[in-house]
Design goal:
The protein is α+β, with helices and mostly antiparallel strands and about 525 residues long.
């Protein structure tokens, strides 16, 4: 049982145990649901690596852990959170992409980089706990996420929005843990997370860097902030950036097969089975010899910076994302925002054509209807975890322009209900509505019939702060890379929202417009 104490973190009964493999993870107790179960790694708390498909690890697992177990036991009556104190240090501006360069090959090195008018980027490394859960692991991934984030703690009023906590990758198939549709899987886990007690925050408006450190004691927080600041002084190894194509063998899935799939979806819509479904096609290949995922990230950022660019180096894998789309944002006060994208036009060859294409998108009844369906779907998802009457759609059908495309974007807002947390919000909304369709569950069934498993594509990359704040992207314009011998194999996808009056050829051309920036970065 978890109860809130009058001052400080919650008091934990000595017998409280979280099972992360081979058992169930308790959800938040109703009387104290804003407090998650304790974090996965604390001083004196054993953490192990299970023998099954799911893993939960700490940097210093106990030497005498029995094999086959993955238990986190709280053996103290009083629980002191290892991230309860926060310290901030500042430094002159550096570009976040190049600050990451010395750590490009380090497991769990991560950069979350904004673009355009965005304010904050983050560099994270050296997590103190990691977690990977596949579909074969019986643990509830959302409860496990709540456990990893830990109890809600205060943030520094002068600090960035993200002041330490968890970065996570939910594959598209994580949604199967909500709807239980029996979806097939790729070789990517359903949920991958790492908890970071220190980070660098890059303020693009003030042009300064803020080092954030968290610790059980003030001195520990100060030391971690100082260590993070020292990351800026690490020189990147001498290495010439590749000049030619990063991928010489990029192959697209068959265009005719895709158009046939679109025609099948249109027929099912006309037949009344669904209203809309997002159907994607794939591009696969291998990085050229001597090229690594960071090279692709650098080139993408240079050619077409997006609001939710990301690089995350995982053991044997890497994720490179250039997403324009926010999935869910939650501030520490409980305000929720989602900004679904539906409706696309390519950029014009000159300013006149470009304005005409943007105006055409804004006036399109088809694209507005497609967008409005997803707005209604997201309103329904948010209503599951929001007080009655709090869900709003303050902005509909705004045209936002990116390097290669115009998009139609709407905004939905809500408030998180008392007693709910980040894990509840994700469970209610996953996978993102803009890349499934309406009704969501039936659209997911149609997608599963027509596409191979998606893996990271159309999942979400997110950060979850210990103060309750959260932000996330929809993993479109994203490349998943898997180490294969001495090289890297890759897959990227692009999709289109199919409605009753969709034209198969037009929808295929839309996928090609969406993949254009990634394709250019890989092949030119």
């Amino acid at each position: 049982m978890v109860t809130r104490s009058a001052i400080g973190p919650p008091t934990i009964q000595p017998s409280f145990v979280i099972a992360l493999s081979g058992g169930s993870v308790p959800t938040h107790p109703p009387t104290a649901s804003r407090w998650a179960p304790p974090s996965l790694r604390e001083r004196g708390v054993p953490c192990g690596v299970p023998s099954g498909s799911g893993t939960v690890s700490a940097r210093h697992p106990p030497p005498n852990r029995p094999r086959g177990l993955a238990l986190v036991s709280v053996r103290r009556a009083r629980y002191h959170h290892a991230m309860r104190h926060v310290a901030l240090l500042t430094a002159p501006w550096r570009e976040p992409v190049w600050a990451l360069a010395p750590f490009r090959d380090e497991p769990y090195a991560c950069a979350l980089v904004t673009g355009g008018a965005g304010r904050w980027s983050y560099l994270l490394r050296a997590p103190d706990a990691t977690m990977s859960l596949s579909d074969k692991d019986p643990a509830d991934p959302f409860a496990a996420l709540a456990a990893l984030v830990g109890p809600r703690l205060p943030s520094h009023p002068e600090g960035p929005p993200f002041q330490g906590g968890v970065v996570g990758l939910g594959a598209y198939e994580l949604g199967d843990r909500v709807e239980d549709l029996g979806l097939s899987r790729t070789d990517w886990p359903d949920l991958t997370c790492a908890r970071y007690p220190a980070l660098l925050a890059f303020d693009h408006h003030a042009r300064q860097v803020i080092a954030v450190g968290r610790g059980e004691a003030e001195a520990e927080a100060n030391a971690r902030a100082a260590d993070a600041l020292a990351w800026l002084e690490v020189a990147a190894p001498e290495r010439a950036e590749p000049a030619g194509p990063l991928c010489a063998d990029l192959v697209a899935s068959d265009p005719a097969t895709y158009e046939t799939a679109v025609a099948q979806v249109v027929a099912r819509i006309v037949g009344g089975e669904i209203f809309q479904a997002n159907i994607a096609r794939a591009w696969t290949g291998r990085l050229a010899a001597g090229v690594d995922p960071f090279d692709l990230f650098v080139r993408l950022r240079a050619q077409s910076p997006a609001p939710f660019s990301a690089y995350w180096r995982l053991p044997g894998r890497a994720l490179v994302s250039n997403s324009p789309e926010r999935f869910l944002k939650l501030d520490a006060a409980g305000a929720i925002q989602t900004q679904p994208i539906k409706g696309t036009r390519p950029r014009g060859r000159d300013p006149v054509e470009d304005r005409a294409l943007a105006a055409e998108l804004l006036a399109s009844d088809k694209d507005r209807a497609e967008n409005l369906m997803i707005v209604d779907l997201m309103r329904n998802d948010l209503a599951r975890v929001s007080p009655a009457g709090s869900v709003r759609a303050p902005e509909l059908f705004k045209v936002e322009s990116f390097a290669n495309v115009h998009h139609l974007v709407s905004t939905v807002t809500a408030r998180l209900a008392p007693g709910r947390g980040v894990a509840d919000l994700l469970r209610a909304s996953f996978p993102p509505g803009s890349i499934t369709g309406a009704p969501k569950v039936q659209a997911m069934k149609v997608i599963a019939e027509l596409e191979p498993p998606r893996g990271p594509y159309c999942g979400s990359l997110f950060w979850a702060g210990v103060d309750g704040a959260f932000d996330s992207s929809v993993l479109i314009r994203t490349v998943g890379l898997v180490q294969d011998g001495a090289g890297w194999r890759l897959e990227a996808r692009a999709g289109a929202g199919i409605v009753a009056d969709s034209d198969p050829r037009g929808e295929r051309l839309e996928t090609e417009a969406k993949i254009a920036a990634l394709k250019t970065a890989l092949t030119q």
